[in-house]
Write a structure and sequence with these properties.
The chain is of the alpha+beta class. The chain contains 19 helices and 32 strands. It has an eight-stranded antiparallel sheet with strand order 8-9-10-11-18-15-14-13, with no helix packed on it. Helix 4 crosses helix 16, helix 10 packs antiparallel against helix 11 and helix 15 runs parallel beside helix 19. Pfam families: GDE_N_bis, MGH1-like_GH.
Length: 679
């Protein structure tokens, strides 16, 4: 499954191009060279003798390297191609393209090779919501280089293009006059640098260090893969998906200036190559058994940016964990609130959950003590600012009414929370999974308070509040005539009674009464929610159900991974295995790279998963999905200083073995074999 685009990335810098290597961006399509939320190349098109090149093949060598084979004319059965070209591209310390043109004729030829270059310096938000730029553009030719620039007050971004071969530079691009001997070759290397206001490399200015060359990136990837647990298994698809996930996690690592060279996962390419509280936390939870350092950096960075004041524009509140942090023009001039923006109600309880799970897995008590103040502030936020209705639930209602998010749960699209008949719920809203996260945060916070903060009184209080929340929740959210939990309560306390995948998150949080868990599992694997590939975000038959609607019927791999984990928690091993099988089967159609979402069409109808049109790929929590599914299938859980496993491998997976799993035990292994199918 492919959308015809080729992606390269390294943290917050990435390039998206067509299959011939060209970039010819429309205002609405996120193709181009981007760094820190600004597009530095909006046009990069190759022509030979005035004709645009056509693709023969494109290969992503690694996440930071690609190779394109192109020809100067469209090949036909009756006309042989006289000239072809190879575009070898990398992204790291700069955007670099090595262009090789090859003469296939037995006689010499003269060619004009041209690269057209433009930059609109669009902010990523401007691509989604097209607007006129407020600053001014300039173009300069200096020492054989092309400098494109944009200036708005103190905000300045520049694109500097240079070439190793002799070239004629004009304000629209580069022209080469090439003479090729019979069967000869010609090559040049073109470098594009993204610069900030001080004329320095933008990444160095905002990240504290320059980008790395391809050789360094390759060494880093080799080291990253070598340090991760080694998987051997009978399923080729699982093996491919695991390797791809680890490589994509490496690509998505983002190293902010305040992180001291350590990384946390950015959310996803192309729209969300930034710090997202919810996404970084959930991805860190998924990857803890494999790359625990991501969780450590996520916890420390989110503590540094934790809310301190009341700010309606940014929706900041004391103790609140950020939602999103951006670096572009619209953020700098406060046209967007993302400096940072705090419009999510779930990132704050999830922060406490990650802190506890991180300690359970790694034994890093020092970090738990270091972050005590941040964790206490997050727990305080749940009751003080999350409970805006004063009834013990976590609610949200945007305070930034100009451009804040209306829905501040993970289903944050405008129509993500609706009644079963399709009506949208009134505000404020209290979605069910928020209550599960709050419950889990209090239970885990109590453990931290008792074992590490020397505050048993606080621990007792948190446990009492969690028990009261669980009892109250099971009374108020249970939809009696459907025997499932409501998606939400609305501002008038009514049950928003759509059947949704959110009920699966209640299982991994532990807020579901044991007597009701079987019914929840039945719904999740029933025909209305389960497509055969995975659990849909909204069940068939609901008023807003749409199999290719963003949060109203698509299948999200990350959602399914947490649902499977929750099913294992309540003992539903076969059901968890069916979800794992469906998602891994789907991964085969995406060459091992699970996208953000795919269509909710039933498996028997389409025979393959249908790609959601604007899905991010790679996306952090989709990349983390196979790792959490492995943990779930192998039943891996920390118990004291030991790793305990309770394998429940589904029939199609055969044998799964993980070696060198890091944790408080040092390194350990886990083995699981599929049980025979039941007849």
């Amino acid at each position: 499954m492919s959308d015809g685009l080729v992606r390269l990335l390294d943290g917050n810098t990435f390039v998206v191009s067509e299959e011939n290597g060209d970039i010819d961006a429309s205002p609405t399509i996120p193709t181009g060279l981007f760094s820190f939320d600004t597009r530095f190349l909006s046009k990069w098109t190759l022509s030979i003798n005035g004709k645009r090149v056509s693709p023969l093949s494109a290969e992503e060598v690694e996440y930071f390297e690609a190779r394109f084979f192109v020809v100067a004319t469209v090949p036909t059965p009756l006309v042989d191609t006289r000239v072809s070209a190879i575009r070898e591209r990398s992204i790291g310390e700069s955007f670099t393209e090595r262009l090789t043109v090859i003469n296939h004729e037995a006689e010499a030829i003269d060619l004009q090779v041209r690269i057209d270059v433009e930059s609109d310096f669009a902010d990523l938000f401007e691509i989604k919501d097209v607007r006129n730029k407020s600053g001014s553009y300039y173009t300069r030719i200096e020492d054989g280089c092309l400098r494109l620039g944009y200036q708005r007050e103190t905000f300045c971004r520049e694109t500097l293009v240079s070439s190793t071969a002799p070239v004629r530079v004009d304000e629209q691009g580069l022209t080469y006059d090439v003479q090729l001997e019979p069967h000869g070759q010609w090559a040049t290397e073109v470098q594009v640098r993204a610069l900030g206001a001080d004329g320095r490399d933008l990444r160095e200015s905002l990240q504290g260090r320059p980008g790395r060359a391809s050789r360094q990136l390759r060494q880093d990837l080799d080291r990253w893969l070598a340090e991760a647990p080694r998987l051997t298994c009978d399923s080729p698809t699982l093996a491919t998906t695991y390797r791809r996930s680890l490589a994509d996690l490496a690509a998505l690592r983002f190293m902010p200036l305040t992180a001291g060279g350590h990384a946390l996962p950015a959310a996803g390419l192309p729209w969300f190559m930034a710090i997202f509280g919810r996404d970084s936390i959930l991805t860190s939870l998924q990857t803890l058994p494999f790359t625990p350092d991501l969780a450590a950096t996520t916890l420390r960075l989110l503590a540094l940016t934790q809310g301190n004041v009341l700010d309606d524009f940014r929706e900041e509140e004391p103790g609140k964990i950020l939602h999103e942090l951006r670096y572009g023009e619209t953020t700098g001039f406060e046209e967007q609130p993302h400096s940072p923006y705090y419009g999510s109600a779930d990132s704050t309880p999830l922060y406490v959950i990650l802190l506890d799970e991180y300690e359970r897995w790694t034994g890093d008590a020092a970090t738990v003590r270091l972050l005590e103040r941040s964790a206490r502030a997050a727990l305080h936020w749940i009751d003080e600012y999350g409970d805006i209705m004063g009834d013990g639930y976590v609610w949200y209602q945007r305070r930034n009414t100009r451009n804040g998010l209306e829905n501040q749960c993970w289903k944050d699209s405008w129509d993500g929370v609706s009644f079963r008949d399709g009506r949208l719920a009134g505000l404020p809203r209290a979605t069910c999974e928020l209550q599960g996260y709050a419950y889990d945060a209090k239970i885990r916070g109590a453990r931290l308070a008792r074992q590490f903060w020397n505050d048993p009184t606080y621990a007792d209080r948190l446990e009492r509040e969690a028990a009261e929340l669980k009892q109250r929740f099971n009374r108020d959210f249970w939809v009696t005539d459907g025997e499932y939990y409501a998606l939400a309560l609305d501002g008038e306390g009514r049950q928003v009674d759509a059947l949704s995948s959110n009920i699966g998150h209640l299982l991994w949080s532990g807020i579901v009464e044991e007597s009701r868990a079987a019914k929840i599992a039945e719904h999740l694997l029933g025909p209305r929610l389960f497509s055969g590939w995975g659990v849909r975000t909204l069940a068939e038959g609901q008023g807003r159900y749409n199999p290719i609607g963003y949060h109203v019927g698509t299948v999200w791999p990350f959602d399914n991974a947490f649902i499977a984990w929750g099913l294992r928690r309540y003992g539903f091993t076969d059901e968890a295995g069916r979800i794992a099988e469906g998602i891994i089967d789907a991964a085969e159609f995406f060459q091992g790279r699970l996208p953000e979402a795919f269509g909710g069409y039933h498996r028997t109808l389409t025979r393959y998963p249908v790609l959601y049109p604007t899905a991010c790929s790679p996306q952090a929590w989709s990349t983390g999905t196979p790792l959490l599914l492995l943990r779930t299938m192998l039943g891996m859980e920390p118990r004291g200083n030991h790793l305990v496993t309770r394998p429940a491998v589904p029939p199609s997976m055969g044998r799964i073995q993980l070696f060198n799993i890091p944790g408080r035990w040092g390194r350990a292994g886990a083995l699981g074999r599929a049980r025979p199918e039941r007849h």
